[in-house]
């Protein structure tokens, strides 16, 4: 994608805004960082895909499985270090919702408008859907557990999911371990039966090539490693700038960090791959398009979220899997409608419009909920 190279101009601009006091503007810095992270995430994915071609299908599949959401993982780890737990949780939820509703919705809508009824491997989609259902169950149980405990203790605050509960911490660690084990098992399944695998490629350029060129490496191993290292380092710096500018930006725009995490952060880290998924649908390659959308959401739920729980231990405070009730409800319903749509192995533009409608409804719900949190929290907070 040639536009990725053009957007690299925002990377030095972000450094200038951060380190030159005369140019400092937090809102502009936030916007520039978002734009600069898009090409960096794209090049990170492309470098991973190039290394995967050189290392063979098995090691390459492992690279794809571990680095597929590396850009978003880096952003959330930086946010964890800064103690922005609500932002991290919101980005996890937003990433899953974005893949299942927004990107898959655009893929089905635009692909259906161009090609009419499109078909894909219903068994592969079924495996991915069942894995996502199990993942959402894993995210729901700690939430329901803590809500019940808070009700029993008479201190329920439905707007606060950052609580000190040793039992919740232990449960979150246990659930995170189980989810990561399930992800490893899915990789083993993919390696043994690639035609029924649940993962997918994460590269950018290779997806847009003809099938005859899809497995021809454009870069050598040294170049791929250099691009991987450079893009990772740049993502770390821009993530630092972005997280530092979140609070003044949300105050200036009248938004909450939670809403920014739900909508903005997931798009920044994955927009290049998302565009590829839509392109594959436009080329009538629905199997690959479904793999990108479902595989990426599954990786976030089964690998990124549990990994962040363990990484948070390094910063002295544990990230739990206690999400808000609206988040778990949105996740469960999103997986349900995505499963219903994919179970027959066929798609059309109306189903894409349905997914986009659900995403719009969910986004409006989060926007108006967070806009009214201060007043509603004062009214609904139960006495100790």
Overview in brief:
This protein has one domain. Helices cover 76% and strands 1% of the residues.
Summary keywords:
384 residues, mainly alpha, two-stranded antiparallel sheet, 14 helices, globular, disordered C terminus
The chain-level mean pLDDT equals 82
Derived structural class: mainly alpha
Which descriptor suits the 3D outline?
globular
- What topology, given as strand order, has the largest sheet? 1-2
Percent of sequence in beta strands: under 5%
Largest sheet: 2 strands, antiparallel
Number of domains: 1
Low-confidence stretches: 199-214, 374-384
Gyration radius, rounded:
20 Å
Separation of the first and last Cα atoms: 56 Å
| Residue share in helix | over 70%
Give the H and E element order: HHHHHHEHHHHHHEHH
- Number of DSSP-assigned strands: 2
Count of alpha/pi helices: 14
Describe this structure in words.
The protein is mainly alpha-helical and 384 residues long. The chain has one domain. Helix content is 76%, strand content 1%. The protein has helices at residues 2-7, 10-19, 26-55, 57-67, 70-81, 85-115, 122-153, 166-192, 221-253, 257-282, 286-311, 325-342, 349-371, 373-380, and strands spanning 118-119, 346-347. A two-stranded antiparallel ribbon has the order 1-2. It is globular, with a radius of gyration of 20 Å. Mean pLDDT is 82; it is low at 199-214 and 374-384.
């Amino acid at each position: 994608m040639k536009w990725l190279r053009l957007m690299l101009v925002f990377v030095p601009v972000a450094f200038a805004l951060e380190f030159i006091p005369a140019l400092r503007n937090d809102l502009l810095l936030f916007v520039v960082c978002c734009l600069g992270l898009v090409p960096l995430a794209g090049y990170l994915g492309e470098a991973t895909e190039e290394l995967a071609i050189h290392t063979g299908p098995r090691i390459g599949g492992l690279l794809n499985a571990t680095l597929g959401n590396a850009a978003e993982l880096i952003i959330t780890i930086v946010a964890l270090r800064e103690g922005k737990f609500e932002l991290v949780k919101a980005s996890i939820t937003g990433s899953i919702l974005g893949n299942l509703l927004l990107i898959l919705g655009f893929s089905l809508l635009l692909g259906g408008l161009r090609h009419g009824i499109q078909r894909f491997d219903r068994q592969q989609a079924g495996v991915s859907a069942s894995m996502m259902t199990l993942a959402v169950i894993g995210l729901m149980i700690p939430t329901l557990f803590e809500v019940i405990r808070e009700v029993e203790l008479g201190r329920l605050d439905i707007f606060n999911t950052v609580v000190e509960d040793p039992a919740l911490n232990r449960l979150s660690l246990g659930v995170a371990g189980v989810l990561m084990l399930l992800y490893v098992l899915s990789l083993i399944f993919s390696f043994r039966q690639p035609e029924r695998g649940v993962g997918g490629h994460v590269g950018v350029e290779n997806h847009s090539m003809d099938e005859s060129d899809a497995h021809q490496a454009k870069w050598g191993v040294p170049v791929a490693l250099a691009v991987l290292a450079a893009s990772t380092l740049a993502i770390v710096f821009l993530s630092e700038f972005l997280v530092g500018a979140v609070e003044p930006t949300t105050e200036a725009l009248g938004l909450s960090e939670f809403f920014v995490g739900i909508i903005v952060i997931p798009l920044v880290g994955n927009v290049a791959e998302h565009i590829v998924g839509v392109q594959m649908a436009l080329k009538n390659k629905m199997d690959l398009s479904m793999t990108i959308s479902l595989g990426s959401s599954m990786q976030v739920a089964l690998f990124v979220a549990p990994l962040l729980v363990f990484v948070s231990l390094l910063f002295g405070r544990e990230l739990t899997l206690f999400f808000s009730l609206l988040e778990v409800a949105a996740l469960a319903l999103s997986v349900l409608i995505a499963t219903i749509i994919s179970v027959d192995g066929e798609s059309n533009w109306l189903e894409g419009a349905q997914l986009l409608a659900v995403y719009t409804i969910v986004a409006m719900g989060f926007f108006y909920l967070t806009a009214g949190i201060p007043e509603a929290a004062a009214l609904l907070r139960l006495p100790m």
